[in-house]
Every structure is written in structure tokens, then in C-alpha cells.
Amino acid sequence: MPRPDHRHAAAALPWDVARDLAHAAAAALVPRSLPLSAADGTTLATPLVAPAAVPPVDRSAMDGYAVAGEGPWQVLGTILAGSLDLPNLAPGEAYAIVTGASVPTGTTGVLQDELAVRTGAEVLGNVVPGQHIRRAGEECVAGEVLLPAGVRVDPSVLGLAAALGLDRLTVIPQPRVAAFVTGDELVQRGASGPGRVRDAIGPMLPGLIERAGATCTAVTQLPDSRSALIDALAKCDADVILVSGSSASGPADHLRAGLTALGAELVIDGVACRPGHPQALARFDDGRLVIGLPGNPFAALTAFLTLGVAALHRMRGLPLPTLPVAPIPGGLAGHPTSTRLVPVRVTPEGAVPVGHAGSAMLRGAAAADALAIIEPGPTTAITARLLSLDPGATHWPY
Ligand SMILES: Nc1nc2c(c(=O)[nH]1)N[C@H]1C(S)=C(S)[C@@H](COP(=O)(O)OP(=O)(O)OC[C@H]3O[C@@H](n4cnc5c(N)ncnc54)[C@H](O)[C@@H]3O)O[C@H]1N2
Ligand code: MOO
């Protein structure tokens, strides 16, 4: 049976509309120049352009001998990767050379060590012209655009930037996210019991925030106190502030009143989805966003994946991700008026519901890879879009 209407039901937005609005309500953060060591997880704000050719000079691709002309060759010395004084090779001459060392002028090719027959100062073997030489500019030439703006900076991008000789990148920084977990009944250690509920949202948030490409600045417990919440929101300078457990209309739910007191604009006041319908998004004049996560832990997770991830994508300068579609063996019934978010395991046969999907339980989510997005209405969905439970997942599920 559908639940009785929540007081925000009238304002509740369709799930896709809310996701679009959360993306639109956020603004891309201002680009900054960051050292490579601080740029992992950011977004390129400008295209990555090669300032110079890579490699800058012809280099050996093997340990062996740089040879000139036809063999046999007289070995006249050794060139190391750091050698600066390079000889000019005349036909019949060779230098022992290491991988990555500049090949001297006149080199025909590099004879790989294992294939060389060395007798005293003479070396013999077969060399195809140009063999085992990495040509200058083989990877890129000066001025070449290697990556467009909007690419996520990951370790390989950082390595490439270093190989190009760059020390800094112009990037959209990672948004900073702080979380306030509210609830007088919450405890941080030990088991739940009468009058005590073990906090199950706080432990989820740092990993979710980091996977969503943001930095988690703090997860702080707050009592069910309006003044404490107002004070915490006013002092928090994070780009996104998550508040859990204060989103409904009970006597201990202070989020909306607190936002009103601080003059925040309530952009989203409820989303027509299950679980997670009391989720909310508000914006301060200075651009900081507040996202209300319902207290039921699975509902909090779905709300972060819906509004939180959408807003963070925009702050990172990224479009809203499109969601892959998968078959649902056996189908899933739609809710009459709300989008259902159903934990599924992604298998070669499709997205298989794992059960245990009540809004207060995380057993289903913990066993699942994704949420199947089931449109409202009387039909049974035999395919569905999938929202990954890992907001950092890019190439999945196939
Ligand atoms: N009269 C109505 N009551 C409720 C409605 C409604 O529409 N009308 N909606 C229900 C739904 S749906 C949800 S979800 C919750 C949202 O409530 P709040 O965001 O205000 O959160 P609380 O009331 O504080 O807590 C709800 C529930 O979750 C437990 N909780 C809270 N925080 C945590 C945590 N960090 N870890 C584990 N469990 C947590 C809390 O103890 C309560 O059991 O409202 C419904 N009520
Ligand atoms: O619909 Mo609530 O947000 O129980 O989960």
C-alpha cells in the first residue's frame, strides 16, 4: 500500500526533473591552477595541449647497440639515458645504449642486446633501418591537443602531464562536501537497542563523497536542535552541506525551518521517489548548496545518489551522466505515482533485484551494484535505467 501523503507530497518533483534541477541549481566551481600532486580527481578546465614534442629527441627503445650502416660494428663507448655528449656515428661504428637514451646522429637502428653477438670491441647482428628507435614527436608534437576540457584528471592524465613537462594543470577543483548527521537517538559505537540507533549514514558518506569526485571535509554529529543546526549551517563553508535525519515533518526535524531562518532558497522540496521522498535541496546566496538526506539509511543513500551526485557533477563541470539500460528478468512493478529505486545486482542476464529494499535497511543495497529506476505507473518494467551505487563508476556495467 502506498504511504499516506507526506506534507511535501504536493511539491514533490518527478525523479528525473529533480535530478535535472539539482544539476542546474549548482554552478561549476571556478577553475584553478593546481600542482599535479593536488590535481587527482579534478576536471580539466582547459584542453591539455602539448607544450613540446614527446619524445623531444629520437630515443632508443631497447638496451643494445646504436649502430650505423652495415655490420660488423666497432663498439666505441656507451650512451646512458642521462648522457649529454653524444657522438656522431660513422658507418661501421656502434655505441652500447640503454633504453630511453638519445640515439646519436647517424644511427641506422638499434640492435637489441639479446640478438647481438659481441666479440671484444666488435658486435654483429641484423638491424632493420629505424628499428627500436622511438622517434621525436612520435607520441605528440608541440601544440597538439591531447585531451579536451571536461576530462576527469586521473593518475594516467597526471603521468601524461608530467611526461609533457607540465608542473601544474588548470582544473575545476573537487567540490568540498561537509555532512551533519542529526539525531539524538544516534550512537557511534555498539549495537542499536531501545532508545538507541547506531548511525548507519555517517559511515557511508565519506566513501560516497570521494567516489562522487568530491572531498569530504567532515562528518559531524549534531543533536536534534534547531539552533545547533542553524549555527552549523551558518558556519560551514563547504560547497555542499549534507544534513541527514532532519528532512520530514516530525518535532525533531529542523532542516526546513533552519533553512528558512538562514534565508536559503528551497529549490527542491521532496522528490516523488521511493525510498527517499522527503529529500530536499536548498541554495544559499553565496552558491553553497544544502542537501537534506532522509534519516532512513537506504533513503539517505538514494537521495545522495539522486540530488547529491547530480549537483556534484555540475560543480565539477560535468554533464549529468546518462544511465545505461538493462533488462530486468521477471520484471518489476511500478509504483502508482513515485519512481521506485530498487537495488539490483548486474549480471550477464540483466539487473536482478536482490530484495531487502525497505527504506530503513541497507541489506539490499550492500548486496547490489546499482539501483534500477522504475518509472511510476501501472506497468511492470522489463527494462530499466541503472544508477550505479558507486558514483565514481564510469564504464559499467558491461
Ligand atoms: N508523518 C510523516 N512521517 C514520516 C514521513 C512522512 O511523509 N510523514 N516520511 C517518512 C520517510 S519516507 C522518511 S525517509 C523519514 C525521514 O525522516 P527524517 O529525515 O526526518 O529522519 P528522522 O525522523 O530523524 O529518522 C527517520 C528514521 O531514520 C533513523 N535514522 C536517522 N538517522 C539515522 C542514521 N544516521 N543512521 C541510522 N538510522 C537513522 C531514525 O532513527 C528513524 O528511525 O520520515 C518518515 N516519517
Ligand atoms: O521514503 Mo523514506 O525516504 O522511508 O525512505
From TrEMBL:
SUPFAM superfamilies for the chain: MoeA N-terminal region -like (SSF63882), Molybdenum cofactor biosynthesis proteins (SSF53218)
Span of domain MoaB/Mog: 178-314
Cofactor field: Mg(2+)
Pathway in which the depicted protein is active: Cofactor biosynthesis; molybdopterin biosynthesis
Reactions catalysed: adenylyl-molybdopterin + molybdate = Mo-molybdopterin + AMP + H(+)
Pfam family, one: MoeA_N
Enzyme Commission number(s) from the entry: 2.10.1.1
UniProt-listed CDD domains: MoeA
GO MF terms held by the record: metal ion binding; molybdopterin molybdotransferase activity
GO (cellular component) term, any one: cytosol
Coiled coil: none
UniProt keyword list: Magnesium, Metal-binding, Molybdenum, Molybdenum cofactor biosynthesis, Transferase
The keyword Magnesium is assigned to this record: yes
BP-aspect Gene Ontology terms: Mo-molybdopterin cofactor biosynthetic process
InterPro entries: MoaB/Mog-like_dom_sf, MoaB/Mog_dom, MoeA-like, MoeA_C_domain_IV, MoeA_C_domain_IV_sf, MoeA_linker/N, MoeA_linker/N_sf
Family: Belongs to the MoeA family.
Function: Catalyzes the insertion of molybdate into adenylated molybdopterin with the concomitant release of AMP.
Record's protein name: Molybdopterin molybdenumtransferase
